[in-house]
Structure formats: C-alpha cells, structure tokens
Design a protein that fits this description.
This protein is of the alpha/beta class. It contains 22 helices and 24 strands. The strands form 5 sheets. Strands 16, 17, 18, 19, 20, 21, 22, 23 and 24 form a 9-stranded mixed sheet that branches. Strands 1, 2, 3, 4, 5, 10 and 11 form a 7-stranded mixed sheet that branches. Strands 7-6-9-8 form a 4-stranded antiparallel sheet, with no helix packed on it. The chain is rod-shaped. The two termini are 39 Å apart.
Amino acid sequence: MKSKLHRNSLLIAIFGAILIGLLYWQDIFLNFENNSLDFRFKLRGVEKPKSPVVIAAVDDNALERIGKWPWRRKTHAELVETFTKAGAKAVIFDVLFYEPDKDRPEDDQFFAQAIEKNGKTVIAFSFDYSEQQFTKVDQNGKTTLVKESVVTKSDPLPELSLVSKERGYVNCFPDPDGYLRRAPLVYEFEGKSYYPLNIQAVSIAKEQSVESLLKNLPLTDAVSWGNHSSEVLINYRGAAEGTFTTYSCADILEGMIPSAWLKDKIILIGSTALGLYDHYPTPFSSSFPGLYFHANVIDNLWSNDFLTPLNSLVSLGLILIFGLLCGLFVPRVPASLGAGFVAIFSLGFWGVGYYLMVKKLIVLELVGPTVSLIGNYIAVFFYRFIVEQREKAGIKKAFGVYVNPHVVEQIAKNPEALKLGGELREMSVMFSDVAGFTTISEKLSPQELVQLLNLYLTKMTDTIMRYDGTVDKYEGDAIMAFWGAPLVQPEHAKQACLSALENRVELENLNLELGKLGMQKLSARCGINTGPMNVGNMGSAQKFNYTVMGDSVNLASRMEGANKEYGTNLMISEMTYEKVKDWVEVRELDLLRVKGKKIPIKVFELLSKKGDLTDSQKNGFEWYHKALDLYHKRDFKEASNFFKKVFEFIKEDAPTKTYLQRIENFLSTPPPEDWDGAYVMTTK
C-alpha cells in the first residue's frame, strides 16, 4: 500500500510540475511574477542614487513664475546657458521640439546657438505607433477592411538636431499590466539601431561610446510595436519625489541654485507638473513621471547595476524540482509536518529571491516554482487523504467486527502502526473452549445449539474486546484471541489475564440465565501464553486473515487442553506469569513437557486478581505449594500428607486430586533416576 502511495504521489507531482511548467511557458504567471518583483522593491525600500543626476523640473512653481507651457525657446536657451556656465557634464531635454516657433523664429536661433555652445546636449525624438485601416480587393473583386500597425519616427527641429551632441528617443514600453519595469536601450527601426536619450546622456558624461556601455549590460531581446529591441530590467531607486535631487527651473533661471550644485552633473530637463508629463505605474508609485524613469535608467547605467533576470530554464527546472520534492516528501511525513515544510520552504525560497535581488542584482522568478511547490503539495496531500480514508475504511471493515472500536479508531488514525504481511512481536494469546461441548450439542436441536453458542460467544467476545483484545477466530465453541496487535500494547499479558478472569465471572452469570431457560450449563477451559509470535495477514492473495502463528501460539493451545489433566479452567505459562505477577494470584500447577518439545515449561493456574483470595484459599494454597515442593524432591509420602491437608481448606481441589493419584502411582512404580518432575503430554 505504501509503495503504491509513494509511486502514485510521485507520478501526480511529476504531472503537476509538467502542467505548471506549461502554464509558466504560456506566461500565465507573468503578471503575478511582476507583482512579486514589485513586492521585493517595496520590501527593500529606497536606495540612494549613485550617479550625478539632477532634475531640472518644469513644476507647478516654475509654471506660475515663468509662464504657462509651452515656454519660449529663449527660456530653454537660457537654461542651457546656465548649465554651460556651471560646467554640467551633460544636458538632456525630455521635451519634444517638433515645430518651429512661428511667432518668434529668432528664439529658435538663440536656442540652437546655446545648444551648440554647450556641446553636451541631447535632444529628444520619438517613435509613434498607430493603426491604419485600408481596403483590400482580392482577385474576385471582393473588398475587405484591413487594419495595419504602423510605426513612424518623429524627428526634432533640424536646426536643433544638427547642433545637438546626440539625439535619443524617449519611448518606453510598459509590461502587459501597464507597469514600467524595463527600459529599451536599443530599438531597431528600418534596419537601423537607435538609442534612448538616457544612454546617450551617460555616453556624453562618461565620454564612452554607447556600444561600449552596452557591452556588459544584462540585455534581453524583446519585440516592441513589431520591431526588435534590447531591454534591461530597471533597478529602481525609489519613489519619484525625494529620491533624486530636483530643482525648479524657475529657481535655476533666477540664480537661486549655486553653480557648484550643477557642476559635473547630468541635467535632466522635463515636466513634473500635473497634467504635463507622461506617467506610468512602477513598483514604487501608481503615477510615476517619465522624467524620473530616465533618471533611474541613467543611474543604473552610471553604476552598471541593472537587475539580471535568470534564464527561463532555471524557473522550469525549479518548477520540476519542487514538484518532485512534494512527490517524494509529502507522502512520507505526517500532514502537519508536510504543511510546515511547504510553508517554511516557500518562505525560505522567497527569502533567497529577495537576497539575490538586493545583494546580487539577480532576479529569481518566484511565482512559478512556488505554485509548483504549493500546488503539488495540495494535489499529493488530497491524493494521500483519499488513499488514507479508503485505507481507514478498509481497516474499520476488517477489524471492526473483532476488535474493540476504540482500538479500531486508533489503527485508523495511525495505519502505519499496522504492518501487514508478517511481523515478529512479543504478544499474548488465549485459547478457550467449552468442556464437553460435543456431548452437550448432541442433546440440542440445531436452533437451540445456535442460540446457546451465540449467547456464550457474545458474552466472551464482549469481555475480550473490553480489554482491547483481538478475536482471531471462532471454531465452533472455541475462541482464539490475542493481545499486542494490531496496536502495540505494553500490558498485553495483563489484559489477557484480566479478560480471562472476567470471562469466568461472565460464564457464571450466563449459567444462571441458562438455568432459568432450562438449558445446559457450560464450563470453559482457557490457556494463555506470552512470547514471540508472527502476526500479520496470512493466507493467499485471494483470501487471507489477520492472525498470529508460531510456537508460542501452539503452546497456548496445548495449555488450554492441559486443563483437563488438572481439572482447572484457567492456565497460564511461566512467561505470562512473569508479566502479570503484580496484578494476579496464581498457584503453580506443574512442569509441563508438551509433545515435540524437550524443555519443560512451568505452568500456573490463574486464580484471581491480586488480593482477592479468601483466607481459606490462602491457607489451602500454602499447604499445596509445600506439598508440591516435596513432590519435586521425590518425597512422595510426605507430599501426600501435605496434599491431603489442602482439602481441609479447599474442598475437592482438583489439582490436589491429580497429584495424589500420581503419588499413588509413583509409590508403586517410582519414576526413573533422571526424572525432572515434568509431566509429559502425550497428546496435542
């Protein structure tokens, strides 16, 4: 059963991992994965920028003091002149200048002259996306309306473009959920590569070519608006406000910002005023100005600390490994331990993902592997639950008839305690049957016989089960029961003996009922032995029985029959006596050598619970044991005198009669010199 559970659990986990891997490959978890990255950013918090980026903001304050947007080109020229005088490393306009100033064309000249004089200015351009509709006519003259995606390039004013140091596009491409997490550093258009204004700015400031800056970056291929691009995963520093040094353009133009604060800086000019800027949700904000997007990219380029996403094959490998872990681990441990393992392992895995991002700049995908871990745990757990419920139902069905119900419940809760197929274990076994039942049955009709048997077996079985015994089988009037299995019972010998003593009382009460019904009274004999026994399901593949086997079992059966020799009802072995001597009263019966065995065993009559003997019985058994000691010493005459003393306290004591008969025989025919005092049973 266990091997099948383990095998099927592993197959379920493998299938689950493959299914989750396919879902991952279809980007089903993409938005969740992106959210997990955002969560890591928020958990990390704000990082201090590492580049000399300064924001020259077209903010509400500047609009109020300088005038409404768009400003005169002369104003932009004055800004550039200010940055030139301050010694800025680069000046970047995140502003599109498509149209000339028709009212003041001289302003365009001033602006161009300022840009040319600065020699470190980047002017923005953009790619534009649109869908165009046109009518298509096929060979049959049938017309259809066709939509076509079109990407165009919008260039800045030629007079500005010619004098600027570089030109860069301002475009960015959000993820499917609308969040901006990646920056396109190369965009292919009409067979030519174009670069954004952020990398152009760093190229100017560091005096390195764009190509050299791109060499060591963790670029990934993408397709944006139908064209190939190379993008990087942005290592955002924090929210828009308060992360990067920001000055209002009005303060800069009015000389309120010292030149030293602008020296050797990368000046990024753009709008932060509400309603003027392009904005996107990012990990730190639901409305993030595009100007700060470029600032973050510049900062990452400056320190070369973009995030590096691991290859998708790593995620697929983890999905498979986590599924296999569930398939191998969950069926072998308790459910609570399995749940704890999955919870702790998941938290640990996310902790590793956080550490890799913050300390190593590596992005480990978390959602797919976690879904594999938790999903396969749930799948395997439910399969195991179904199997265990079936197993419990089978156990209850198999044991419910002949095992105490609360023992059945314990087995059902812990099926591992039940090892089927054979196990050697120390146990106690009891055999009992009704004395002279064959003679009794001959006097009864079939209906009366069944009624009598049912009354007797019900009483005896109830007591056995009350003491947590397992009824192995009925053979006519005979009962075989054992203790110590299916569950381990440390006091199995005690429970067996107390059950036998109580059954003796139950039989006396039953005989009173039988007398009232005018039915034959019954007398039962019982043998109990303790020792190693083989317990488990015995039989064929088609039909088997949960039972016990071995020499210890056979001895109990012989002892039940040996009661006839001594006229007793309850006989236990020396092995049983050693286990129960603190709870019951006994008297030694004999050294018994059963058929087929050389070594004799000491057997005892089970009398009562500890302390329940009467004074008369105590005196009688005292004389009995003295007589038995003389008997074993071959002092048969004196032993005979002592045995006769027993009758003064216990009338018609059957074992005493047995020994007096033996002594009479030994006095006429003494035993051999090597006699060890044992009685040899000649029958089974």
